[in-house]
Amino acid sequence: MTNTSYKLDNATLTLFQNTQTSIVISVIYMIVTAINLSGNGMSMWLLLFRTSPKTPSIIFMINLTLTDLALGSALPFQISYQLQGYDWRLGPRMCSFLTLVFYTNMYCSVLTMMAIGIDRYLGIVRPMMFRQTRQRKSIAVISCFLMWGLVLGVLYPLMTTDLTYNIPELNITTCFDVLKKNMLPSVSAWALFLFSMVFILFFFPFCVTTFCYISVIRKLARDSKTAQKKRAIRLAIVVLLVFVLCFAPNNILLLVHSILRLFYDRTIYMAYKLSLCFSCLNSCLDPFIYYFASKDFRQKLREIMRMQSLSSADSMKMEQKETLFSGQ
């Protein structure tokens, strides 16, 4: 964050001149993009066309996959920006849009995982309450719209602000890497913005999700089959790993960096920048959540894998026959 007339510190300028960091981040984004589009593309096809009925969990998974595919489509622009030396050439509107896609994916993923956790909690720990709740599909769809509304409401400043910043010393224009302090009218407005992002969109959903999965594991540990218990524990581990490895470092560093920048004129932006690229790994892990959370998804995926293995086996047999005939 900087004033429009403020000169950037040496640490920030060094980051923009560090080609090694830029290449590392770009390589991570390339790997994430490939896994994201292939894994979530197959997941979306299975969830939409091969999985029925559309239970609340399936609806939440479709919502999660949609946000992941949006991120996968936006990452190539970020890769190009990194490889061009942090020089944004697509204009301020495109910068705001892609930044919004980036952060909407993160926080919609957090809220959707919380919704899946609540759905499993009600289904396993509070089954009577769960059965009495009618119109569950409608509630799930409305919940998805409310999630998007909440996230877009909190991130509204990103939609209405020019997030590009010209650095004459390096002859580049950055995108969201240098924020102007006058993006928001006061320090209290900045505090509210950061509080909403870190605590409302991350910390509170993390606590709720953790409570739900711990309650589910305790319930299944008392009176469940071994296979179901193992799947529940694996699902809880994957979800908590996504929170701890992908979302927690980024949100904690965002808060620390913003406080240091606003009040002490110091920065840890390089660490935050690296944590931001690791936050995208959630889009690669989400298909594992679908696998452990949905029995129907699991069965359909196994059927596809079985068909592929059978077709490959048939093709090998055909090749062997052709080899034998050609030998004659």
Describe, in plain words, how this protein is organized in 3D.
By secondary structure, this protein is mainly alpha-helical. The chain has a single domain (10-315), classed as Up-down Bundle (Rhopdopsin 7-helix transmembrane proteins), CATH 1.20.1070.10. The protein has helices spanning 10-17, 19-50, 56-83, 91-124, 127-132, 136-154, 156-159, 187-223, 226-264, 269-279, 282-293, 295-327; strands at 164-167, 172-175. Strands 1-2 form a two-stranded antiparallel ribbon. Strand 1 and strand 2 form a beta hairpin. Helix 3 (56-83) packs antiparallel against helix 4 and helix 11 crosses helix 12. The longest helix has 39 residues, at 226-264. The protein is globular, with a radius of gyration of 23 Å. Residues 312-328 have low confidence and may be disordered.
The CATH architecture designation is Up-down Bundle
Output the radius of gyration: 23 Å
Identify the strand order in the major beta sheet: 1-2
Q: H/E order of the elements?
A: HHHHHHHEEHHHHH
Q: How far is the N terminus from the C terminus?
A: 76 Å
Q: In which range does the helix fraction lie?
A: over 70%
CATH class descriptor name: Mainly Alpha
Number of beta-strand segments: 2
Percentage of residues in DSSP E strands: under 5%
What is the CATH third-level topology name?
Rhopdopsin 7-helix transmembrane proteins
Low-confidence stretches: 312-328
- Count of domain modules: 1
Which structural class is indicated by helix and strand composition?
mainly alpha
Query: What is the mean pLDDT?
Result: 80
Summarize the main sheet: 2 strands, antiparallel
Q: Tell me, what's the shape? A: globular
Under CATH, the homologous superfamily reads Rhodopsin 7-helix transmembrane proteins
Supply the number of helical segments. Answer: 12
Family: Belongs to the G-protein coupled receptor 1 family.
Domain G-protein coupled receptors family 1 profile: 39-290
GO cellular component, one term: plasma membrane
Keywords: Cell membrane, G-protein coupled receptor, Glycoprotein, Membrane, Receptor, Transducer, Transmembrane, Transmembrane helix
